[in-house]
Amino acid sequence: MAVDLRSYLGHVELPNPVLTASGCGGTGRELAQFFDVTRIGAFVTRSITMVPRAGRPTPRMAETPSGMLSAVGLQGPGVEVFAERELPWLAQRGARTIVSIGGGSVAEYTALARRLAGAPGITAVEVNLSCPNVEDRGRVFARDGSAAAEVVASVRAATNYDVPVIAKLAPDVADVVSLARLCVDGGADALSMINTPLGMSVDVDTMRPSLAAGTGGLSGPAIRPLAVRCVWQVHAALPGVPIVGMGGVMTGRDALELVLAGACAVAVGTALFHDPFACQRILRELEELLQARGFDRLADAVGLAHRPAGAGPRNRIDLEESSL
Amino acid sequence: MAGSPVQVTGTVLTTRRVEAYHALTVVAPAVADRFRPGHFVTVGVGGPHTSMLTRRAFAIHDVKPDYGGTVEFVFSVRGPGTAWLAERRARDTLDLVGPLGRPFPLPRDPCTCVLVGGEYGSASLFVLADVLQRRGCRVDFVLGASSADRVFGALRARRMGETTTLTTEDGSLGMRGEVTDVLAGVIADARADVVYACGPMAMLRGVTAVCAEFGIPAQVSVEQAMACGVGICMTCVVPVIDEDGVTRMVRACTDGPVFLGERVRFDDVGTIPFDALGAPGGRHG
After folding, report:
1. Which residues of A113-145 are buried (b: 16+ CB within 10 A; e: fewer)?
2. Does residue A140 sit in helix, strand or coil?
3. In this structure, what DSSP letter does residue B54 have?
4. CB distance from B278 to chain A under 8 Å?
5. What is this model's ipTM?
6. Domain B6-100, CATH number (from 3.40.30.10, 2.60.40.10, 1.10.630.10, 2.40.30.10)
7. Cα of B177 to nearest chain A Cα, Å
8. Structural domains in chain A?
9. Model's pTM, two decimal places?
10. Would the pLDDT of A316 be above 50?
11. How confident is the model over A238-294, as pLDDT tens digits?
12. Between chain A and chain B, how many beta carbons pairs sit less than 8 Å apart?
């Protein structure tokens, strides 16, 4: 019997839990050469900004063990071109589109949400909180819970009531659970995690940083344990909040790991660079794994790793930030 | 969809050393069918559970009809990924995606073409020369590298080209110097109408400058580090002047790798030009 793979972000139903990760699927057209983008749970756009952005200088990418550093700098055409050309293309095909937005101030996020509010074909809005806050000397919103909550609240207020707002969290913060709680209190209907933690590599031949920007976001299987940890902690603290898990998902097993830790949907990012068919493959593998374990529904597996081990006491799970 | 790229698991047919380089021939009929000169393929390296996540991009050197269709690409060992590739043997399998990129535009009418290759960049020029000659074009070659063992395809160029000029920086083969030192003479002697070039960025910049003096177009195939090759990672961008006169950061993989040389802002590669669309503090459309 087929597994019921439906996944819910707030009240929005997705036919399956596999999404693209923001910034890893282009405009949708590039991947459409390889597969039908309507067959995945949802297509998540790169982070859309108010004005066009040329991004960072090259080199923008460096390969690291089981990972990749990248500093693209949110290159994109701006919200107007996105709303006129890219979103309608996705909408016409019937793709469920989650629009990621990025800004440098609360006002910019609000303006973006307002610009997109009437646009047809938006399944959800994802707020990329890993953008530097120009009003706070470039400190990223995700590192400042109150600023993050303020962004989420203003985006929530500017977005249609029937479009869920997803707050995307970074793992390199002091306390991801309190950040998650502040975002949910600010009005986030769902959370997605993790954005890329900041990393760096130095080329020992040129004796210079490998990336022109110096630092870059680390992605790939190298960060999967970070993702599992964040999903685990946040799901334990906020079990009712839907979580989109991501971070180095390469196979169905990796996706199931995040689901068991508490994610109700899983996004595929860097794997798409390696294998443009990664989304369908992971979906197929996830379904087979669920079937093999006797699940009728994906929902039954969400957060299952939190159940007490055997007859052991329930409170043995250590939810502290510290590993001591 | 005709011309759209495919992913195949191809079997390695032959491996060979060509001077300082390696060449792999892989059975991939679906890629070979769709191939046009200038296309490239990306290869997954390190096997099924690899720790190397980015794909390696290589220009297609040759396609042959054997076994339904094979593609050959040439590479030099630069790191662990290409070292792994160099260890492949016949009957191993390789994960290929291709053909990718925009191929070389071809002239409508017969004309005289100079094909310039630097290092193993010349690998992609021979299938181009073949197509041009079948269209009645005259083809002249200029190939160069740092030393004789790094000049790729000198023999084949001599066999195919009306003339072939070789340069090496150490003087071990042909003229001492760079391809750009001899290019003006070749263009003048052949009365060339167009130049096609593939090689390192600095060479392409020089070739474009020479072509500008003669007022002829240079079709250059750029080499930029890329992770995906299909247009989604946004890491292989180069500053290119668009038809509307605005400089945009465009992807070498999907908008290129072949560009009209005069459109590429070679001096600004590796930067975001201040007047590029969306540059920090710059224009926003």
Report:
1. bebbeebebbbbbbbbbbbebeeeeeebbbbbb
2. strand
3. S
4. yes
5. 0.89
6. 2.40.30.10
7. 25
8. 7-316 (3.20.20.70)
9. 0.90
10. no
11. 999 999 999 999 999 999 999 999 999 999 999 999 999 999 999 999 999 999 999
12. 126
